[in-house]
């Protein structure tokens, strides 16, 4: 599945209606974003069970601000409607593949229970 362009109107629905969503916050003027783009696109083709979305921060400033994006590229991962990862910086293909494997394996409810228990 190819990447999809996301905006403020469909971002929340995409996050909540899909099990696993990877979002690339990027900008046309950003060199590392352009370098990461083909890696992100290739991962989307290799993982049709995951939604890969792209958010142009210049065209979606309100969404980028609401998501707390301070640098680009920033990769955000949501699983079962929960943000489980957010990190700025371009990734190498093998690092993105590793994140995909970790995200697929993560049990969100168990992680939430662990987090709640450690907060007590």
Can you lay out the helices and strands and say which pair or pack?
Blueprint: E1 4-5, H1 11-17, E2 20-26, H2 31-46, E3 51-56, H3 61-66, E4 74-79, E5 82-88, H4 93-105, H5 108-119
Number of strands: 5
Q: Are there runs of 5+ residues with pLDDT below 50, and where?
A: none
SSE ordering: EHEHEHEEHH
The residue-averaged pLDDT reads 93
Strand content: 15-25%
Strand ordering within the main sheet: 1-3-2-4-5
Largest sheet: 5 strands, mixed
> How large is the count of helical segments?
5
Helix content: 40-55%
The coarse overall form would be globular
Radius of gyration: 14 Å
Structural class label: alpha/beta
- Give the CA-CA distance, first to last residue: 42 Å
Assembly of the depicted chains: single chain
How would you characterize the overall build of this protein?
The chain is an alpha/beta fold and 120 residues long. Helices cover 45% and strands 23% of the residues. It contains five helices and five strands, in the order βαβαβαββαα. The chain has a five-stranded mixed sheet, with helices on both faces. Strand 2, helix 2 and strand 3 form a beta-alpha-beta unit. The termini are far apart. The model has no long low-confidence stretch (mean pLDDT 93).
Descriptive keywords:
single chain, 120 residues, alpha/beta, five-stranded mixed β-sheet, 5 helices
